[in-house]
Amino acid sequence: MAGVFLAMMPTSSSVPGPTRGAAALTDGVDAPVPASDTPAALVTLADLEADPHPALARLQAAAPVSWVPALGAWLVTGYDLAVEVLRDARTYTVDDPRFSTAKVVGPSMLSLDGAQHARHRGPFNRVFRRDGVHTRLASFTRAETGRLVSAIEPRGAAELRRTVAGPLAVAVMAEALGLGRADPIRVLAWYDGIVAAVQAAAAAAQPVGTAGTAAFSELAASLREVIAVPGSASVLSDATGPLTEVEVISNAAVMMFGGIETTEGMIANALLHLLSSPAQLELVLAERGLVPAAIEESLRLEPAAAVVDRYATRDAWLGGASVRAGDQVTVSITGANRDPAVFAEPDLFDVRRPNAGRHLAFAHGPHFCLGAHLARLEAEVAIGTLLSRLPRLRLDRRYPSAPRGLVFRKPPDLRVRWTGRPLRVDAPRPGNLDHTANTGGGAMSEQDDFAERFHRDRREHAGASQRLDDDQLARLTEEERVAAGLDAYDPDEVPPATDTPPQPEDITQTEEWQEERAELLREADKGEIRPVDERHPFPPTRYE
Ligand code: HEM
Description:
With 544 residues, the protein is α+β, with helices and mostly antiparallel strands. Helix content is 44%, strand content 6%. It has one domain (109-526): CATH 1.10.630.10. It has helices spanning 39-42, 45-50, 53-62, 79-87, 101-105, 114-125, 130-152, 160-177, 184-204, 210-228, 245-275, 278-286, 291-301, 333-336, 372-389, 446-457, 470-475, 478-483, 511-526, and strands at residues 65-68, 73-76, 92-93, 157-159, 307-312, 316-318, 321-323, 328-332, 394-395, 415-417. It is globular.
């Protein structure tokens, strides 16, 4: 199991946590390792990675918590028990030496519980509230989304994870932390370096490698510069005081992990759900106010972070299972979010589902996702902008787009098409359709360049297949498309080239943007900011 867990989540070591052959219990008595034909014994990591939903439904029907040998952990799939575990940090803690993130970035809110957790998280609660993120980051998020969409708009086809969702998540996180001037590729390289180190530490229970240490040191040096500037706009600015500089940096690193891959997945999954469900898409297109509800429903149906791990601090009964001190207890957010006792017809994507907001995609209890409002803002802006600016946006059926992943779930590729107006650019020679080659004759814009480098630099895509990429597809002439074995030219799919490129919209000049900004400023002036009850700093989700 280890090694597949990415940095942000509590991570198990390669030696399964529990030291015994625990098993689901009946009548409160220790049972032997489950019989080989039970759903728990049959579930495999491959099932959980590819399409976990049928296996989780079988597990849930048998028991809300079961010992899963493939995971070396108790797997909680029932909603009520998931909430129980996530609320009870005294019994089910993240503070365990098996949690490898702390080995790389040091102790942070993600790896601590109790008073220490409150001390690490407290200084950030206010800036991450809804009003806080909207005041600080809404206009940046809109402008950046506008820029990213402008770069692809003329092409008529794109892979949206690497051209919009991923770069947006990186840019917003860099801006939030005050690293706005840093090259996004450097930010991503730090992220990748630290994630790789955490994975290696988890997989082999080894000390952190030098590459991971170097990546973290570079990030730390840049953050130190940000912290040194008094009154900076960074979300870190209020934290020095209650926390030491080292602690602020550890928590900033955790925010970066939390804010990149998950948000990219959240946006990609929501787009996938909408574009695969024509009737639901129609509802949203007719009533744009449904975008936030569609995002909540998508978070329920396919949470970008599928599981979180806890470690039992004492022997405990959990839904009829006898958990022993030291056992790993993994909460399947994916499973809980489809518990039929809470969500009727749980496999359906229904943007009008009345209780979608009860999903656990951002966890629950003391570790409720700090960045939930920021992630929602990014997703709402990204999806709203894409639906508004790319007419007849639809999945490119030639490429599969099902979500995958054991911990972080998202489609490996999200290729779409729309009725756009591609720029006239020199076409590549049909024989030179290499995935990584820069075949375009036209000069690459800065944005193209970023998307290209982003794509290339993602470690996980190092071995990506040699398919045509978006630039190449958009640049092909009709004859070349046919010669390359692609579908015949359809004037509706890729309209004729034009010499007049559309002008990117300056979103800050739109009436809507100006009005919204004025409204936010008025609210801030009047002090209409929802009070925070420090004893209950985790607000219920919006649709409860
Ligand atoms: C701007 C984006 C985001 C930021 C800055 C962020 C940051 C964080 C931080 C700092 C924590 C630790 C909170 C604590 O331990 O007290 C956290 C927890 C968590 N986040 Fe986020 N996050 C973001 C987006 C997301 C998204 C999109 C998802 C999933 C859809 C997600 C899922 C979670 C979950 C499940 C936890 C709980 C982990 C646990 O309980 O072990 N986050 N997030």
